[in-house]
Design a protein that fits this description.
- The complex is a heterotrimer of chains A (428), B (131) and C (386).
- In chain A, strand 5, helix 7 and strand 6 form a beta-alpha-beta unit.
- The relative contact order of chain A is 0.16.
- With 428 residues, chain A is an alpha/beta fold.
- Chain A has helices at 11-14, 43-53, 66-85, 99-113, 129-140, 158-164, 187-196, 270-306, 334-340, 361-365, 370-374, 387-407, 409-415; strands at 31-32, 93-96, 120-124, 144-148, 169-173, 200-204, 223-227, 238-242, 311-313, 324-329, 344-345, 376-380.
- In chain A, helix 2 packs antiparallel against helix 8 and helix 8 crosses helix 12 (387-407).
- With 131 residues, chain B is an alpha+beta fold.
- Chain B is 47% helix and 20% strand.
- Chain B has helices at 5-12, 64-77, 82-86, 90-97, 104-130, and strands at 27-34, 39-47, 53-61.
- Chain B has a three-stranded antiparallel beta sheet with strand order 1-2-3.
- In chain B, helix 4 (90-97) packs across helix 5.
- Chain C has 386 residues and is α/β, with parallel strands linked by helices.
- Chain C is built from twelve helices and twelve strands.
- In chain C, helix 2 packs parallel to helix 8 (238-280) and helix 3 (71-82) packs parallel to helix 4.
- Chain C has helices at residues 16-22, 38-58, 71-82, 99-107, 128-134, 157-166, 186-189, 238-280, 306-315, 335-339, 344-347, 361-385; strands spanning 4-5, 65-68, 90-94, 114-118, 139-143, 170-174, 193-197, 208-212, 283-285, 296-301, 318-319, 350-354.
- Chain C has a seven-stranded mixed beta sheet, sandwiched between helices. In chain C, strands 9-10-12 form a three-stranded antiparallel beta sheet. In chain C, strands 1-11 form a two-stranded parallel sheet.
- Helices cover 41% and strands 13% of the residues of chain C.
- Chain C starts with a strand and ends with a helix.
- Classes of the chains: A alpha/beta (428), B alpha+beta (131), C alpha/beta (386).
- Chains A and C meet through helix 2, helix 3, helix 4, helix 5 and helix 8 of A and helix 1, helix 2, helix 3, helix 4 and helix 8 of C.
Chain lengths: 428, 131, 386
C-alpha cells in the first residue's frame, strides 16, 4: 500500500481561485451554491482520511493488535476535536452515521428512556424531517406532540414556547440553524425555559457547526446533533452530544456489540470519524475569518437580487447565518426557475424534500403563500464561493427571471393591476 | 429528473409566447390551473370566419413540462378547426414530449386549456348570433 | 518482525481499486444525491450504479438493496422492522448469532415479543430438529446467519427458510461473512431479508445493505428525509456506497480464486497446527468436520489462554483474534463456543485465524514457526507458574 496518494481534486469545481464563469457559458460545471445540502470535502480533510482507509484500516473494536489500536487512537483524537468545537467533554460525544441518526437517537432515545416522566413532546413545524418524522413515529407508539408554528420571520416566540409546555412534557427539540432559511433560534432562552420546567432539551445543530459559536459548557442544552458533511467533512458520519452533568440518559436505538458505551452499536468507520474531526478542527480555527468573508458575499448577492421587483427574503435577515439566502421570486414557478438557472447549483426548498413537487413546508409554516413558497430558491454560500461566482449568479438570475416573467400569466396580471389573491381559480 | 430533448427545446425556445386582444370577438381565452397548485396556463386562440385557428399564443406559470406542453399545443393548434382542436388529447401531448408519469398532469392542463379556449370562442360566437 | 494480517473476518484492507473509485467522491464530486442539480444527479447515478453491483453480488434485484451505515444497522433494521409480521409471537435466532441480531431481538421483548435461541450441535451447525420443534409455537421471525464469524461454519439457510415460511414466519439471514467467500444468492436462499457489509470484502467501512423482499411490510429504523424509498432516511454515504459497489464487483470476479487459495492456506495451517498440537499440547479445531468458510480456522490449545496467545503473536507481528472483534471488550469466553457445548476452559483458549487471498503460503509457514515457539514459551511459563 502506498503512503502518498495524489488527490484528484478538480480545480474547476470548488477552487477558490477558479475561473469566473461567463454568462453565456452554460456548458461547464455550474457554480455550486448549495452548501446547505452538502459541502464538498475540504482537501485537507480528504488528505487526513486517506491513510485510515489504506494502511490503518483496523477495526477500532479489535483490542488484540495494533491495527485496532491505531484506529482507536484516531477515533479518540477526532472525538476530542468534535468536542472542542462545541465546548463539550469528549466523553459526551457519541458517534453516529449522520444527523438523521443523531436526531432519531436523541429524540426516540430520550423520550423512551424518560417516558415514565411524561409522554408529551414539543418541536417546531420548521424542523428538519429527521426530527419531525422521529416525533411522528413516537406519536404512533403513544406519545403526544406539539408542532409549534414559528413567527413569520421563522423564529419562535418564547411566550408561545412556554405556553406549549404541559405537565407531562418530557422533551423539546428545536434546531439551532434552519436548513432552508438559515435563521438562528435563541436556544439559550429556550433551553432556560426547558430547565425551569424540567424538560429535556435537544438541539439539531447539523447546519450550525462552523457557522455559529457553540459552547455546550454554558448552553442549557442536553442533547445536540451534528454531522460532518455540512461542515466540509465526509458523508455518513455524525455525532450526538449527550450531557454528563447533569447526566442525561438515552435508550440505545442500535443494539449489538455495545460500542459507544452501549449508546450506539455498530463498527465505527474510522476514516470518516477522522474526517469529521479534521473538518471540525478547521471549522474551529477558521470560522471567524471565513464567516466574515461569506457575509460580504451574501450581502453582495442580496443587494444584487433585491434590484428586481417582487423579490422576498424568507426568514429573519438579522438572526441568521450569513451562508443562507432564501428568496422568493414572485410570479415565477420554482421548478422552471431551477431549470432556467442551470449555470448555478441551488435548491428550491430543502434538498431532502426536493424530490417532491410539494411546496416547502418550512416556507408554508412561515405563512408564505403557496405561490411564494413555490417560487423560492435557497442560495447557500460556502468556503469555496468566490466574488465572481456571486456576480455571475446575480446576472444569471436577473436575465432568467425576466424571461420567465415574460412567460408568466401571473406576472402579466400583476402588471395589469389584478389582485391575484382575489381571482377565483378553477380547482384541478 | 431528466427532461426529454423535446421538453428542453420548447422550454429553451418557447413558441408563440404572448397575448392576443381578449376583446376581439374572434379571440378565445382559456385560463386553467391555479397558483397554489404550481401551474397556471393561459391559452389564446384567434379563429377566422371559416372556423380555422389562425393564431395561438400562450403564457404559462409552471414547471418546464407545463411550459413545453403549452408551447407545443400552440404549434399544433394553428391551422386546425376548433372541432379538431377540441379533439386533441393529453395523451398525444404527453407522448410527443415523452413526459414522465409525474408530469402527465401538465399535458392534462394543456388539454384543459384548449377546451377552455374553445368553449370561450364558442360562447362568444353564440353571443354574437343571439345578439 | 513480521507484519502480517490474519484477522480478515474482523475487517479487511481496502483494495486499491476500491479506493480509486471512492476518491472523486471524497473530493470534488461531493453532491447530495437528493439534490436535483448536476452535482446531486451524478451522486445519485453513482449510488444507483453501486446498487446494481451489490445486487449482482447477492443474486438479488437492485430494487431489493437498501443501503445502511453498517451490518449492525442492517441487522437491527431487519429484526426490529420485521417482527411486526406477527405481533407478540416469538423471534427465533440461532444460539450463535452476532450480538447485533440477538440484542435487538431481546429488545423486542418490551413490545411483547419473546426471543428464543435455536440450538446448535457441537460442530456449530444449527439443529433443524430443534428449530422444527420451536416452530410449533407462533413465530414472527427466524434469523439464522449464513456463516459464523468465529468458526466459519455454514448453515443450511435455504432449508431453514423453507421451514420458517411453512409456518408463516419471516426469515432473515446475516450473510456478512458469506459475501465474497462462498456463492451467495438471495433468490436461492429464499429468505425475506439478508444482511451484507462492505468492510468484510475489501470495501470501506461505512456502507452495508439489507437485501429485502419488498413485499415485506417493514418498519424503518431511521425516520426523516425518506431516502432509500422511505426505508432508511439519512443522506447517502456516497463514497462508501460507491466503494462497496466496486468491492462487490471485485469479490464476485475473484471468488473462485479466493476460495481455492484461502482453503490451501488453511489446510496448510491446520496441518501444521495439528503437528504442534500432537507434540506439545492437544489442539482442537472447531467446526472442522462440517462445511466451513474456506478462509477461517478457529482453534484452541489445552492449557493456553487465547488472549495471552493472541497478544504474544501480536508482539511478533501477527494480527489474529481471540474472538469476534465486536465482543473483544469482554473477557467472557466466546458465546458461540459455549452454545456448541465446548468446555469453558477450552473456550478461553480459542484463537481465530482468518486468511485472505492476499496472504501467502510463506506467511503461513513463518507463522507456524512463530506459533510453535510461542506455544512452547507459554507452556514453560505456565509450568513454572504451576
Amino acid at each position: 500500500m502506498s503512503a502518498t496518494i495524489e488527490m484528484p481534486i478538480k480545480k474547476d469545481l470548488f477552487d477558490v481561485n477558479g475561473l469566473a464563469k461567463s454568462l453565456h457559458d452554460e456548458s461547464g460545471p455550474p457554480v455550486y451554491l448549495d452548501y446547505s445540502a452538502t459541502t464538498p470535502v475540504d482537501p485537507r480533510v480528504a488528505a487526513m482520511m486517506i491513510p485510515y482507509i489504506t494502511e490503518h484500516f483496523g477495526n477500532p473494536a479489535s483490542r488484540s493488535h495494533p491495527y485496532g489500536w491505531t484506529a482507536e487512537k484516531a477515533v479518540e483524537n477526532a472525538r476530542e476535536e468534535v468536542a472542542k468545537l462545541v465546548g463539550a467533554d469528549p466523553r459526551e460525544i457519541v458517534w453516529t452515521s449522520g444527523a438523521t441518526e443523531s436526531n432519531n437517537l436523541a429524540i426516540k432515545g430520550a423520550a423512551n428512556f424518560y417516558s415514565g416522566k411524561g409522554k408529551h413532546i414539543i418541536t417546531v413545524a420548521t424542523e428538519h424531517k429527521a426530527v419531525i418524522d422521529a416525533v411522528r413515529e413516537l406519536e404512533r407508539v403513544g406519545f403526544t406532540a406539539t408542532y409549534l408554528e414559528p413567527e413569520p420571520n421563522g423564529l419562535i416566540d418564547l411566550a408561545k414556547f412556554k405556553a406549549a409546555i404541559q405537565p407531562d412534557t418530557v422533551l423539546a427539540s428545536v434546531m439551532l440553524v434552519n436548513n432552508e432559511i438559515g435563521v438562528i433560534q435563541d436556544i439559550t432562552a429556550i433551553g432556560n425555559i426547558c430547565r425551569e420546567n424540567n424538560v429535556i432539551f435537544h438541539v439539531d445543530a447539523a447546519q450550525a457547526t462552523g457557522k455559529v459559536h457553540i459552547d455546550l459548557e454554558k448552553l442549557p442544552v442536553d442533547l445536540m446533533s451534528f454531522c460532518a458533511h455540512k461542515t466540509y467533512g465526509p458523508k455518513g458520519i455524525g455525532a450526538l452530544y449527550v450531557r454528563r452533568k447533569p447526566r442525561i440518559r438515552i435508550e440505545a436505538q442500535m443494539h449489538g456489540g455495545g460500542h459507544e458505551r452501549g449508546m450506539r452499536s455498530g463498527t465505527l468507520a474510522t476514516h470518516q470519524i477522522v474526517g469529521m474531526g479534521e473538518a471540525f478542527r478547521i471549522a474551529r480555527e477558521e470560522m471567524d475569518v471565513e464567516n466574515a468573508r461569506i457575509r460580504k458575499l451574501r450581502d453582495k448577492l442580496l443587494h444584487g437580487l433585491q434590484d428586481m421587483e417582487e423579490v422576498y427574503v424568507n426568514g429573519d435577515l438579522e438572526q441568521r447565518v450569513p451562508h443562507n439566502l432564501n428568496i422568493s421570486f414572485n410570479y415565477v414557478e420554482g421548478e422552471s426557475l431551477i431549470m432556467a438557472v442551470k449555470g448555478i447549483a441551488v435548491s428550491s426548498g430543502s434538498a431532502c424534500t426536493s424530490a417532491s413537487l410539494e411546496p416547502s413546508y418550512v416556507l408554508r409554516a412561515l405563512g408564505r403563500s403557496d405561490e411564494l413558497a413555490h417560487s423560492s430558491i435557497r442560495f447557500s454560500i460556502g468556503r469555496f464561493t468566490t466574488e465572481d461566482d456571486v456576480d455571475y449568479t446575480i446576472e444569471l438570475m436577473k436575465s432568467k427571471i425576466d424571461k420567465l416573467r415574460e412567460l408568466s400569466p401571473l406576472w402579466e396580471m400583476f402588471k395589469d393591476g389584478i389582485d391575484i389573491s382575489k381571482v377565483q381559480w378553477a380547482a384541478h | 429528473m431528466a427532461y426529454s430533448d423535446k421538453v428542453l427545446d420548447h422550454y429553451e425556445n418557447p413558441r408563440n409566447v404572448g397575448t392576443l386582444d381578449k376583446n376581439d370577438p374572434n379571440v378565445g381565452t382559456g385560463m386553467v390551473g391555479a397558483p397554489a397548485c404550481g401551474d397556471v396556463m393561459k391559452l389564446m386562440i384567434k379563429v377566422n370566419d371559416s372556423g380555422i385557428i389562425e393564431d395561438a399564443k400562450f403564457k404559462t406559470y409552471g414547471c418546464g413540462s407545463a411550459i413545453a406542453s403549452s408551447s407545443l399545443v400552440t404549434e399544433w393548434l394553428k391551422g386546425k378547426t376548433i372541432d379538431e382542436a377540441y379533439a386533441i388529447k393529453n395523451s398525444a401531448i404527453a407522448e410527443e414530449l415523452a413526459l414522465p408519469p409525474v408530469k402527465i398532469h401538465c399535458s392534462v392542463l394543456a388539454e384543459d386549456a384548449i377546451k377552455a379556449a374553445v368553449a370561450d370562442i364558442k360562447a362568444k360566437q353564440l353571443a354574437k348570433e343571439t345578439a | 518482525m513480521a507484519n502480517v494480517y490474519f484477522d480478515n473476518n474482523a475487517t479487511t484492507a481496502l483494495d486499491s481499486r476500491v479506493l480509486e473509485s471512492m476518491l472523486p467522491w471524497l473530493s470534488s464530486q461531493s453532491g447530495n444525491p437528493t439534490s436535483r442539480h448536476v452535482y446531486g444527479r451524478s451522486a445519485r447515478d453513482a449510488v444507483e450504479h453501486a446498487r446494481v453491483q451489490v445486487a449482482e453480488a447477492c443474486g438479488a434485484y437492485s430494487s431489493q438493496v437498501v443501503f445502511t451505515a453498517n451490518g449492525t444497522e442492517a441487522n437491527n433494521f431487519a429484526i426490529k422492522g420485521m417482527a411486526g409480521n406477527l405481533p407478540s409471537a416469538q423471534i427465533l435466532t440461532s444460539a450463535i448469532e452476532h450480538p447485533c441480531v440477538t440484542r435487538p431481538a431481546l429488545m423486542m421483548q418490551q413490545f411483547g415479543y419473546s426471543s428464543k435461541p435455536i440450538a446448535v450441535d457441537s460442530s456449530g451447525k444449527l439443529s433443524l430438529e430443534n428449530l422444527q420443534q420451536q416452530l410449533t409455537l407462533p413465530t414472527s421471525l427466524v434469523s439464522v446467519m449464513l456463516a459464523n464469524n468465529e468458526t466459519g461454519v455454514i448453515q443450511e439457510v435455504a432449508i431453514v427458510a423453507e421451514l420458517a415460511r411453512a409456518v408463516g414466519a419471516f426469515i432473515h439471514t446475516d450473510a456478512v461473512q458469506g459475501l465474497g467467500k462462498i456463492p451467495l444468492s438471495f433468490t436461492d436462499l429464499n429468505v425475506h431479508a439478508m444482511t451484507v457489509s462492505s468492510h468484510k470484502i475489501h470495501g470501506p467501512q461505512g456502507a452495508a445493505a439489507l437485501i429485502l423482499d419488498k413485499r415485506v411490510d417493514i418498519q424503518p429504523l431511521l425516520h426523516g428525509g425518506g431516502q432509500e424509498k422511505g426505508l432508511r432516511s439519512g443522506t447517502e454515504n456516497v463514497a462508501a456506497i460507491v466503494g462497496f459497489g466496486v468491492a462487490c464487483e471485485l469479490a464476485v470476479a475473484n471468488r473462485i480464486h479466493y476460495a481455492s487459495h484461502t482453503q490451501l492456506l488453511r489446510d496448510q495451517f491446520e496441518q501444521g497446527l495439528v503437528d504442534i498440537g500432537s507434540i506439545k499440547s492437544s489442539v482442537m479445531i472447531f467446526g472442522n468436520k462440517v462445511a466451513r468458510l474456506p478462509n477461517t480456522s478457529f482453534f484452541a490449545m489445552n492449557g493456553i489462554e487465547g488472549e495471552t496467545l493472541v497478544m504474544a503473536l501480536d508482539r511478533k507481528g501477527y494480527a489474529v483474534a481471540s474472538g469476534s472483534a465486536c465482543s473483544s471488550d469482554s473477557t467472557e469466553p466466546s458465546n458461540v463456543l459455549l452454545a456448541m457445548g465446548i468446555d469453558k476452559d477450552l473456550a478461553r483458549g480459542a484463537v481465530r485465524v482468518s486468511f485472505d487471498a492476499t496472504n501467502t503460503p510463506a506467511q503461513v509457514n513463518d507463522f507456524l514457526v512463530t506459533l510453535n515457539n510461542e506455544v512452547k514459551r507459554l507452556k514453560e511459563l505456565t509450568a513454572i507458574a504451576a
